[in-house]
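Quick review question:
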């Protein structure tokens, strides 16, 4: 064994080390991409099939090996369909710029104003227990989602957002889509998540927020009409019971560069800022 290791090390080249490192990074990246999704369980099934295929070859089980080999070949096309959401998310991730926290268009004052209007609106909706669903576009375009609703192209305003979600108004049912400092549309329809592990106490708004976050890099904010609690969906993950200061920090990660800090945040919230 020691002689084998020594011979292997003696023939190891710099290119081999780079090759192994690249494969390790790709495998780790794929694991992070699939972890927590339905594709994770499917991936385990594929690995088991690969092991069985190789084992049937070793033990000379020709009929089993033939069936498994052809199953893997034909299954490739099926995998493209089954993994379509995950593949799309991965390709979109590759196509984005290296930093997801680059600043959006508009000057600093407009960005702070957009954050303040959003926080005021969501805080008011939460206190009144008015259901709401707000989607904030990042780098992945949501034009197909915007087209399903009523286009507004209005500057972000807390009063406008609150009035949109008042029950029994024409635009209250559906999602508001926001890009930069502009409300693009209201009453837009979102794709629902296929995730089966979502808590049964969560409704259609939460499932829709998860669905759009699985298909793009947006932030989806949900206000529950039953409890008034705030949830945020990003990258296929749902965070529940978010307080306003935490939500403000999340919004700053979208609207403000990393080197800009809202120094008066503590003064605005003080000790009574949490819901």
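Suggested answer, residue by residue:
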């Amino acid at each position: 064994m020691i002689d084998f290791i020594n011979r292997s090390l003696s023939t190891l080249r710099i290119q081999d080390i780079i090759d192994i490192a690249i494969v390790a990074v790709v495998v780790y990246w794929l694991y992070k991409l699939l972890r927590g999704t339905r594709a994770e369980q499917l991936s385990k099934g594929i690995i088991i099939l690969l092991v069985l295929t190789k084992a049937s070859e070793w033990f000379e089980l020709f009929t089993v090996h033939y069936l498994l080999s052809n199953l893997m070949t034909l299954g490739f096309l099926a995998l493209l369909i089954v993994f379509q959401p995950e593949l799309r998310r991965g390709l979109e991730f590759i196509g984005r710029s290296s930093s997801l926290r680059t600043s959006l268009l508009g000057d600093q004052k407009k960005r702070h104003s957009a954050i303040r209007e959003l926080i005021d609106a969501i805080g008011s909706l939460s206190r009144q227990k008015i259901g709401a669903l707000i989607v904030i576009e990042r780098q992945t375009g949501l034009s197909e989602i915007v087209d399903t609703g009523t286009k507004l192209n209005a500057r972000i305003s807390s009063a406008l957002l609150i009035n949109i979600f008042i029950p029994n108004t024409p635009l209250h049912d559906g999602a508001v889509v926001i890009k930069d400092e502009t409300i693009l549309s209201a009453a837009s329809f979102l794709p629902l998540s296929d995730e089966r592990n979502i808590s049964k106490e969560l409704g259609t708004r939460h499932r829709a927020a998860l669905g759009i976050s699985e298909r793009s890099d947006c932030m989806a904010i949900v206000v529950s009409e039953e409890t008034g609690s705030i949830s945020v969906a990003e990258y296929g993950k749902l965070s529940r019971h978010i307080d306003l200061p935490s939500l403000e920090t999340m919004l700053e990660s979208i609207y403000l560069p990393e080197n800009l800090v809202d120094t008066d945040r503590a003064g605005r919230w003080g000790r009574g800022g949490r819901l």
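Why it works: Residues 14-34 form the longest helix (21 residues). Strands lie at 132-137, 150-155, 175-179, 182-188, 219-223, 230-234, 237-239.
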